[in-house]
Design brief:
Blueprint: E1 12-15, H1 25-40, E2 44-47, H2 61-72, H3 95-108, E3 111-114, H4 118-130, H5 146-154, E4 160-163, E5 170-175, E6 179-184, E7 192-194, H6 202-212, E8 217-221, H7 228-237, E9 244-248, H8 268-273, H9 278-286, H10 301-307, H11 322-335, H12 338-345, H13 358-365, H14 374-383, H15 390-393, H16 399-413, H17 422-436, H18 440-452, H19 460-467, H20 469-475
């Protein structure tokens, strides 16, 4: 199988996250490409939970994965709460299936029992490294007679089952992203297929499940390239047809290191909780290592699903640039209808936010919203007591002048007439500034700080009008002593 174009039927794809904590942003990224291949061909996209690594299993992690998919709006056809024709879609519920195929491989001579202790394997690896050899299993147990094996099994000796890799030959495939890839068989280790706890390793489980679930196209990270020869050998040994393989580049940080839990916030739900829109996050991750055929930066998930093609995926690791995500999120926020934006802001509005004034406040901060969570910081001075920094207030002037400016401004703003509109307010204040020949930059900055406690705010006169006459007059009464 060389190119996806030679495959004309409906494609079946899958994502297979492990429940080891968070729902990773890389999972969402890969899923978008899987989903596109399935949708473009009238096929199916499924989610399978790979929970055979019990040492890293986290209790509620599976629920988080499905919650993340729901929030993002990535729809799947089989798996999870939906079930499907190849259920169960969770590896820990399929153990008897893997056991059956492991036994078949042993019977054929393509796998064997290994009784080596962890201590012996560690010592063996250390010795190999010291001698400058590639660390791999030395096949001590491959030479055991069937009688020896039966005796050890009867005595319940702890054991694993290993793949028997041919000594010579080349294992190769045509990768949909990387082209021709090959490995010398002699460099491939006799991989453990079944662990001593009765659980399969990733390698056996993934091959068995992808075959039984009729997966036609397999997208996965480039870190799995070195494992692929083992998978190819398993497909051959079991007499199954290989799916098409595409190894995606690894997402990287700006310093080119791998995007990881330890260094980054890679949790999908954390982006939700920090006020990013799902549409913006999907648009941003779609452009990681892939480019729109028309060079577009902003496009919807449905457009991506229509125009995605694997030949536009780059081989080098794309950089996860949060500045670009912030820019994109701001654009998506400003493209929402007012009603939709208000609905999405609701979870981020603090309990003391004056909701009856939201319609007046929102237009003033809209241009400055980067995430929904910014709403509190951008609006708190409208409804909470402010702190005024005396040094900032007196920055370009003397105490006497500022006291005088505040007093005269209060007098001018006391009549109700000045508050009929923000234009009326602006006219009163600008006339006052000109009449007194106060320096524009000093006076307006001083006024802004006195009224809001901040140097950067939405337009001053609209802001003052929303804060209201009574509160503004109170704030202009600043006691220095």
């Amino acid at each position: 199988m060389s190119h996806t174009s030679s495959f004309t039927g409906p494609k079946r794809t899958r994502i297979a996250p492990s429940p080891t904590g968070i729902a990773h942003v890389g999972t969402a990224w890969m899923s978008m490409f899987d989903l596109a291949l399935a949708r473009q061909s009238g096929g199916q996209f499924l989610i399978r939970i790979e929970d055979t690594d019990r040492t890293r299993f986290v209790e509620d992690a599976e629920a988080k994965i499905y919650e993340a998919f729901e929030w993002l709006g990535i729809e799947y056809d089989e798996g999870g709460q939906k079930g499907g024709p190849y259920a169960p879609y969770k590896q820990s519920e399929r153990l008897d299936v893997y056991q059956k195929y492991a036994q078949e491989l042993i019977a054929q001579g393509d796998a064997y029992y290994c009784f080596c202790s962890a201590e012996r394997l560690t010592q063996m690896r250390n010795d190999q490294q010291k001698a400058g050899l590639l660390p791999k299993y030395d096949r001590l147990c491959c030479g055991l007679s069937s009688d020896d094996v039966q005796q050890k099994l009867k005595a319940n000796e702890p054991h694993v089952i290993r793949l028997k890799v041919p000594d010579v030959g080349v294992i190769s495939w045509e990768d949909l992203i990387r082209g021709h890839v090959e490995f010398e068989s002699s460099a491939v280790d006799d991989q453990v297929l079944m662990k001593s706890d009765g659980f399969p390793t990733y390698h056996l489980a993934v091959v068995v499940d992808d075959h039984l679930m009729k997966i036609t196209h397999l997208l996965r990270g480039e870190e799995w390239i070195s494992s692929t020869p083992k998978h190819i050998l398993l497909y051959r040994a079991l007499g199954w047809e290989m799916p098409f393989l595409a190894h995606m580049p690894l997402i990287r940080n700006a310093d080119k290191s791998k995007l990881s839990k330890r260094k980054n916030d890679v949790s999908i739900l954390s982006y939700r909780d920090r006020g990013y829109l799902p549409e913006a996050l999907l648009n941003f991750i779609a452009l990681l290592g892939w480019s729109h055929p028309e060079g577009k930066e902003i496009f919807s998930l449905s457009e991506f699903l229509d125009v995605m093609s694997l030949d536009r995926i780059q081989k080098t690791g794309p950089v996860f640039d949060t500045k670009k995500l912030d820019w994109m999120n701001g654009i998506y926020i400003r493209n929402l209808s007012v009603e939709d934006l208000k609905h999405r802001l609701e979870p981020f509005l603090p309990s003391d936010f004056p909701r009856e004034r939201l319609d007046h406040i929102l237009p003033l901060i809209l241009e400055r919203l980067v995430t929904l969570k910014d709403v509190e910081g951008l609006t708190s001075f409208f409804f909470r007591p402010i702190t005024v920094d005396r040094d900032e207030l007196l920055k370009k002037s003397s105490l006497e002048e500022v006291e005088s400016q505040l007093k005269v401004t209060r007098e001018v703003l006391t009549p109700e007439a000045s508050w009929q509109s923000h234009e009326a307010l602006e006219e009163s204040i600008r006339q006052l500034q000109e009449k007194n020949n106060w320096k524009k930059s000093q006076y307006f900055m001083m006024l802004r700080i006195a009224v809001t406690g901040q140097q950067a705010t939405p337009p001053l006169f609209e802001t003052m009008r929303v804060i209201g006459r009574e509160e503004v007059l109170k704030r202009l009464t600043i006691h220095f002593h």
